[in-house]
Amino acid sequence: MITAADETLLRRAIDIAAAAVAGGDAPYGSLLAGPDGTVLAEAHNTVRRDNDISAHPELKLARWAARELDAETAARTTLYTSCQPCGMCGGGIVRSGIGRVVYALSTEQLMELNPQSGEWPAVAQEGPALLEEARTPIEAYYGPR
């Protein structure tokens, strides 16, 4: 359930996105808030500026949380973002331990506003293969099962 306090922080994420556009960057902004609503960190999209496909604000904040917060604290944070996180960012959010995400626009709504947002081709994946060879470094690190 999205509360009035959530809406206030979500509006801040939208303001960050607007400031990104004013600065020449893509229109995406995010912030990470602690359990009491204190803003811990903010970020906006710098994919073009940094020439880095991973420079989405949600992934930047997930990386920040994983690096700066212990697991218990991260689990009590909320990521507020102007658009629903993409698959890349979603994976980072899960791995970071962030406890909750609140977003303004869904992926479908974004694609209605900017159809190019969904124009990523599928990439063929094949495998598994070479299990016996591939398991050697895994077992060396984690131990045999």
UniProtKB/TrEMBL annotation:
Its EC number is 3.5.4.3. CDD domains: nucleoside_deaminase. One of its GO terms (molecular function) is guanine deaminase activity. It comes from the Bacteria. The keyword Hydrolase applies. InterPro entries: CMP_dCMP_dom, Cytidine_deaminase-like. Keywords: Hydrolase. Pfam families: dCMP_cyt_deam_1. This is Guanine deaminase.
